[in-house]
Amino acid sequence: MPLEIGVLRRDFRTDPFFDGAAEDRLVVRRCAACDRWLAPDAACCPGCGDEDPGWAEASGAGTLVTWTTVHGRPAADGTVPPPALLALVELAEGPWLYTRLTGVDAPREGLPLTAVFEHPDEGEAYLLFRPA
Amino acid sequence: MNAAIAGLGMTELGKVFGRSPRRLAADAVRLAAADAGLDLADLDGLVVSHGLGGSPGIELAETLGLRDLRLLTTMDSFGATAGAMVSYAAMSVLSGAATTVACVFADAPLQPQQSSGAAYQRDAREWYGFGGMTAALGLRSVNAYYALAAQRHMARYGTTSEQLGAIAVGTRQWAARNPLAQMREPITLADHQASRWVAEPLHLLDCCLVSNGAIAVIVTGADRAASLARPPVHLWGWGQGHPGHRRERGSGFGLTTGAAVSGPVAMKMAGVTVDDVDVCQLYDCYTYTVLVSLEDYGFCAKGEGGPFAASGALAPGGSLPTNTGGGQLSGYYMWGMTPLSEAVIQARGDGGERQAPANDVILVSGNGGILDHHSTLILSPHAKGA
């Protein structure tokens, strides 16, 4: 069941990520000159300062670095939004992504994960990670 | 020559409405000057730090009618700014570039009829780009980022929620003795454990308050300070640390902070070690921040912040009185000015019921961003080298 997250749009800076997500491929930043993988929203390559490093398809494999279950504030009527299991995931290629986990019951450091994409009716596809 | 803090100005803090951050900043500078027994015209330097709720910038000089300043600037390293401002002011005084410098922080993120969390939280129906996706999926507040850091420390070192709770309980015990503190009702470890989750492993009582208000200090030469209205608070040392943890393999995020650098730099300058520190005023946006800072300063070994906090060392009667005004958890949330203001109060011996038994060496920390920036000051009621 899709998450109730609102509608996700492109921002012209990370569009290759969403092109990949539409096809269930994980596309992240990669600076070819420095042979260095970066998060899709990296402001620049810390190796050479390039503010528009290229893009490349990552394997989608990663491991869990750390996690938090976030609980929304109770609304005025006492209802509480569903909690979200958020995480920092280390891609096999090295960069860390802030992301959300699905299907993880017992998070632990180093848990092997794999990228999955959800395709809502409206807006862009979004990335989650599930146990590998 | 050495430098000292000669004046402290604090506006009303907390749910203070109807005054802009600029007005609050101006009020704090006036109070600080008056505290020092100075006229505003005696100031020849002004350094400004703003929070989230609208910016007092260098136009604050005009608001105050200051003329012929030799130093006027804003500074920003988030929660580390207060320490950075004071060290910059001290260096300006020592170099002769200025003689009497006001450093001020003001913020007014709270609105009437709004929760504290809402002041620092994002909500939207539409989200844009990769960063928007992360927010849409739930990573919308600073709480979540610090929770990720705290959880990593727990997983690596076995730190527990009860150990974090010991910090919350001890800090509240201090706050109960501070008439300036916003939260003074005693709490127990059970209260901490029963308080609602904000972002696991952080309970509500692991998280700081949000406050409106402003705090200013006046920095001048130690000799001059000695002739002013209040006892000088001498600046023995200062340092900064900006670890630059990257979001990639090998990062120390959540495990170590800039205190590991800024602490030794400041203590070396001051000619002291952790064994000499009588009182700590540590930046406590979260209980966890206190714990990890204690480790990085060397008050305990890396990974042993939890047992150290749980030992009761930080609370009233403990071996290392820490956040004696109630910190940001229970006192008031003025970013780096919270620990600095309480340090000045303790150095002057003005702590009343909460005065620490010894105050010869006081360590003050600031922490900014998501553990990205750290500043340290070493203060003392005694002249340096005396």
What does this structure look like?
The complex is a heterodimer of chains A (132) and B (386). Chain A is mostly beta strands and 132 residues long. Chain A has one domain (15-131). In chain A, 6% of the residues lie in helices and 39% in strands. Chain A contains one helix and nine strands. In chain A, the strands form two sheets. Chain A has a five-stranded antiparallel sheet with strand order 7-6-5-8-9. Chain A has a three-stranded antiparallel sheet with strand order 3-2-4. The longest helix of chain A has 8 residues, at 15-22. The mean pLDDT of chain A is 94. By secondary structure, chain B is of the alpha/beta class. In chain B, α6 (161-175) packs across α10 and α9 crosses α10. Chain B starts with a strand and ends in a 6-residue tail after the last strand. The relative contact order of chain B is 0.19. The A-B interface holds A 3, 5-14, 17, 37-41, 46, 65-71, 73-74, 83-84, 86-88, 90, 94-100, 108-109, 124, 126-128 and B 115, 117-118, 121, 124-134, 136-139, 141, 143-144, 147-149, 151-152, 155-156, 196-202, 246-249, 251, 253-254. β1 (7-9) of chain A pairs parallel with β5 of chain B, so a sheet runs across the interface.
